[in-house]
Amino acid sequence: MTGETMHHQPSKRKRGEMIAVCSAKGGVGRTTLTVNLAISLFKKNIKVGILDGDFQFGDIGLALDLQSTFSMKDVMEEIENIDEFSLGNYLCSHESGVKVLPAPERPEYADLVTKERVNRVIDLLLQQLDYLVVDTGVGLQEHTIDLIEKADQILIVTNLEMATLKNTKLLIETLEVLGLSHKVQLVINRADMESVIGANDVKDILNIEDPIYIPNNFQVASQSLNIGIPFVINQGKTDIAKSFFRMAEQLTSRREISFIKEKNPNVLSKLLGFKLGKGGSYE
Ligand SMILES: Nc1ncnc2c1ncn2[C@@H]1O[C@H](COP(=O)(O)OP(=O)(O)OP(=O)(O)O)[C@@H](O)[C@H]1O
Ligand SMILES: [Mg+2]
Fold it and tell me: Quick check: bond before 211 cis, omega within 30?
């Protein structure tokens, strides 16, 4: 990523935001969501990276049809010699412009991954990026808990199947116990699929406000994964792609709002400081 044009907002460099994509059940659409969300964010002229946090069986490389030279294995082995700039050499550039750090090629290499090393990699990436979208392993295995704790936002993906909802509820409750519920955003994938439970009931079942809805379109979603071209690239007019563009809009506007909120105390402090004079005290 060194020497690249910084084509974009926000103009003030600020640590990027990490979004962890997780789910209580496998096969509900984490990888689909990760790649399509990342590219939708990138289309808004935002610097975006993907980290495949499914360290054993990650398939981001497949979903993006990447021929990468390096993976998380190499980064873990070289971590002592890697800095913010040299890390860029280990990233794979997807043709969309998104930077990707793929999972190790073999499941046993996941043993090289430690919380401290991954956190360091994430911190270095967030110095360069506005968003880092992380696909995690299924459920709450140790690596996934570490990633969830580190994340600024946790997207929990569910569908309308009874078993998925039951486990999603347990996942949400566990995150509540861990004190992480303020970071949680629920995403109901395949929201209009035929099911005994309607998408509208999910809010009440899971006790979650304002979920994001992604429509069901197996033909587009499945073909996209199989050919390794995220549908937001070449099927932008479909409802499923449009739902990702909306999600990207929603997530970025939320972040802009929090930027403004963060600025307010300073403005207020300055105003109060001005009124109170130098010796004045205020909270
Ligand atoms: N909105 C959708 N509509 C229809 N099919 C979908 C949708 N999202 C994902 N799928 C399909 O669901 C399947 C699983 O998707 P995906 O691989 O993204 O899930 P995953 O949670 O990453 O799975 P794993 O647990 O194996 O990593 C794929 O066949 C994909 O095409
Ligand atoms: Mg996956």
Answer: no
| 272 Cα–ligand 1 center, Å | 53
Residue nearest to atom 16 of ligand 1 (CA): 29
Distance (angstroms) between ligand 1 centre and the Cα of 110 equals 23
Degrees, nearest 5: CA angle 222-228-234: 80
Q: 17-276 adopts what CATH topology?
A: Rossmann fold (3.40.50)
Which ligand has the nearest atom to the CA of 33? 1
- Structural domain boundaries in the chain: 17-276
From residue 196, give the alpha-carbon distance in Å to each of 28, 159, 206, 216: 17, 12, 16, 15
User: Model pTM greater than 0.85?
Assistant: yes
Cβ(101)–Cβ(126) under 8 Å?
A: no
Taking the CA of residue 25 as reference, the ligand 1 atom at the shortest distance is: 25
* Residuewise pLDDT in 10s, the chain (283 residues): 444 444 444 445 678 999 999 999 999 999 999 999 999 999 999 999 999 999 999 999 999 999 988 999 999 999 999 998 999 999 999 999 999 999 999 999 999 999 999 999 999 999 999 999 999 999 999 999 999 999 999 999 999 999 999 999 999 999 999 999 999 999 999 999 999 999 999 999 999 989 999 999 999 999 999 999 999 999 999 999 999 999 999 999 877 666 555 555 554 444 444 444 443 333 3
Separation of 225 CA from ligand 1 center, angstroms? 8
